[in-house]
Structure formats: structure tokens, C-alpha cells
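re the bet — no i am not wrong, look at it urself. input seq straight from the record:
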Amino acid sequence: MSSALDKAPVLVVGAGIMGIGIVQVAALAGHPVKVFDTREGAAAAAIAKLGGTLDGLVAKGRLDEAGAKGAMARIQPVATLAEAHDVRLVVEAIVEQLDAKRGLFAELEGIVAADAVLATNTSSISVTAIANGLQHPGRLVGMHFFNPVPLMKLVEVVSGLRTDPAVATAIFELSRAWGKTPVHAKSTPGFIVNRIARPYYAETLALLQEQAATPAVVDACLRGAGFRMGPCELMDMIGHDTNFAVTNSVYDANFKDKRYMPSVLQAEMVAGGLLGRKSGRGFFEYPAAAAAPPPSALPAPAPGHVVTVHGRGPVADFLEQAVNAAIGDGGLSATRDPDSPWTGLTVDGAALVMTDGRSAQRLAAELGQRDIAVFDRLVALPCAPGTALAFAVAPGASAGWPAQAAAWLAALGFAPQALADTPGLVVARTLAMLINEAADAVLQGVCSPEGADAAMKLGVAYPAGPFDWLKQWSVPGVVGVLHALDAEYRGERYRVSPFLRRRLAS
């Protein structure tokens, strides 16, 4: 089956942005490609535009002229599906509607050979449902590309309940031949990327709804953790209508599981036409760039303090170096308490604690200490100077401690971002939920841990995969944050995946 697809004739149905991107990749890989679209003249117009794109790549030195001409010579628009009776592979990239896709594939079964592979580029519809009613459902497989197709490396190869494993293997190998990085996925709501990514948006929307932070602050903190775009600017770019629709689709398909519950805040934005870049306003206004939190003038920590760094591991080591660099001019140095049950530092008894999920108020009560501040999880070490870092101060702290806590974080090289005292702050809360969602996906056989990591790094450009983060952190650490969130909010949303519970027990 796999060898039969080498340079095999391909039909791409749908000449929109995704469809013509697939045409470009297939043609450059040496396949004869036919293009069909129900809109009269759309296929020819898209091919002509593609010619200009390839000419542009030649002018920039990214493609040789012979390669561009050869690819264009292999592309042909067709006016009817019957003209593509000889293809060995069909890739569908039409509207995201189940009935439309079913109807198309049913029609194609009467045209192409019985062993031709049928692939759907659906991003959210069940592959099993699309195959229902076909004469040969085993040959239908998901081949989910990401936009822009020529640039994005990831392809989710999605198997429905009746997909022939040999067909999935053939598409997996073909994707590799096209220069992509394929990952196998089981047909479940959201597949891999759209499912695992939900908490990146959901936790931010929850923080905003309870007024714990502003969009600019949340974005700055997650960019500080290595994400290319903050969730608010990313939702603005995607479009809140699109993002909200995907969330609703995953929520409905999971029978209203509270983990995927849509946000009332985002629903209100969609209802008000605040869709993001496309409407000129979402969380931010456009064409102006996404806002950054304003810098705050902070006093330097007064000299002469007794500073102790608590805990073991890379974060404690980094803090010790940063503290010594900050106070070294005064002839002082930090002491170290490696046996402390928490990571952070004390300054004359007041404590700056890296979050383990507990709020500053709860920590103050449990440690019997009035002046407590929690700061967010440090992920990418060493942190670059000026990295945004969320922190929160216990409500009962002395009047001068909030400013001093911020001043100490600034002296350590961070740009402190004050939040309301909420469990898990921004980064720890978001990463814990991303890891938890990925753990459930692996538990349910949707993908492997390696597939989850590859999908999230290549599909949405995450700085690391969820299982990469889990290795850097720890199962008890992740579970602790989830338990703290569940204790605060109650309900099903923050339940710990059995995958993590079993790891914890072992």
C-alpha cells in the first residue's frame, strides 16, 4: 500500500487555503495533482495564484526554477470529479460539515478504484462518522495538515474505528516523503493538538473572568515561559468565533465534560463582535500590536538583609546565583537550606515561595508566617533578564511586604507581574492542565507520549511538549497543583488523570 502511493496521482478536493497548500506540497514532491472545487473557476484561479507563490520562492532562492516549473506542470484543474477517476489518493479539504464530507466520499467511491486511499483533512469531525456508509470504510483516514500547509511540519494521521492499519501506515509514510512529521492519532474529539491545547486558552479565560490578571499580564507571563505567543494575542489572531466554536465542538463531543466547558467571557466577546484581529478588536485593539504590561518603578531591596535560599534542584541553584549577584556588592551572601520542603527564599523571615499550587493565603496559614508571597513556576532556566514573572501576596501581609516582594523579584532579574492571590498563578496552572490533558489522551490511546510532544511542538509551536515538561517537573508536583486547583474551585474540571495517579502510586 505504501509503495503504491509513491509519486501516485493525487486529487485534492477544495481549492481554498488548505487545499492549495496541500496541492503545493504534493506537486513539489513529484505527484501529478488534479484539483477540483465546486465553485466555478476556483481551482484554476488558485493554481494561478500558486504559480505566483512558487515564482516568489524562486526569487528568494528557496526553490530552483526547474523545480517550480516541474511542479506547476504536474498540476491540473478538473471540472468534474469523473476526470480524476485514475487517482490513487484523494485528499479532501472542503467545508467542516459531516454531511458534505460523507456525500463527497460516497460520490468518489463510484469514481475512483476500490483500493484508492481516501483522506480527509478534517480538524474536528470524527473520521469514524465520515466513513459511516461507505462501501469500503477501511480506506478512509484522517490526514490533518496545519496552516500554512507548506510551512507547518505536523500531520496528524487519524484512524477511525474502521480505518485499515495499512492505510494509516501508508499515509504516515507518505507524509514523511512529503517532508512532514506525521504522528498517529485515534479519532476522538479534537484529535491531539486541538484537544491538548484547550487548557492554554481555558485557564487564561478563567483567570480573566475572575479578574485575577489582565490579558497583557497573562500573555507576558506565558511568553516568559517560552511560548511564542500569549493565549490572548493567539485567540485574537485565530478569531474568537473560531476558537469558541472549536471549544464548543470538543465540549459537545465529550458529552459536556466540565474540563472542556466554554467560557462565558469568550461567549460574550463573540456575541459583541469582538473577534480579534479580523474585527479590529478582541482582547487588544488592532492594527496596534498586542499590549505589554506597563513597567513599574520598584525600589531596590534595602541592604543588610539575612537571605536564605530554600530547596534543592535547578531552580534553587538559579535563585542562589541570582541572590548572590544581587546582594554581592554589599559583601553579603545567601545561606542555603537544601532540606526545606519548599523552593524559594526568605528575607529576614519573610518568604518568597515558588508556587506548588497553594495560594499565598493558604501558605501563610499553614506556615504560620504573615509575610508570604508566591511566585510562578520557573520553566526555562537560566531566565533571561526582564522575564515576566507572576507573583501574589498573602492578603494579611504587612503594608510594606508587597512592594518589597516585587523589589526582590526585580533584583533577581525578573519583571514582576502582580496577580490576585489565585492558586497556581499562570504558568504552573497552565502547564499542569496541559500535562493532565495529554496524560488522559495517552491513557485513552489517542496518541503516544512522544506523539503528544511532537504534535504540540510542531502543530502549535509550544516550547516543549507536555511530557517534556513532566520530566522537568515531577508527577507529585503536577498532581499537587491540580489538587490545589480542585480544592479551590471544586467540580470535575481539575480532576487528576488516572495516568498521573498511577504514576504517582508507582
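see?? The mean pLDDT is 94. told u. also The chain has four domains: 3-187, 194-279, 307-418, 427-505. so pay up
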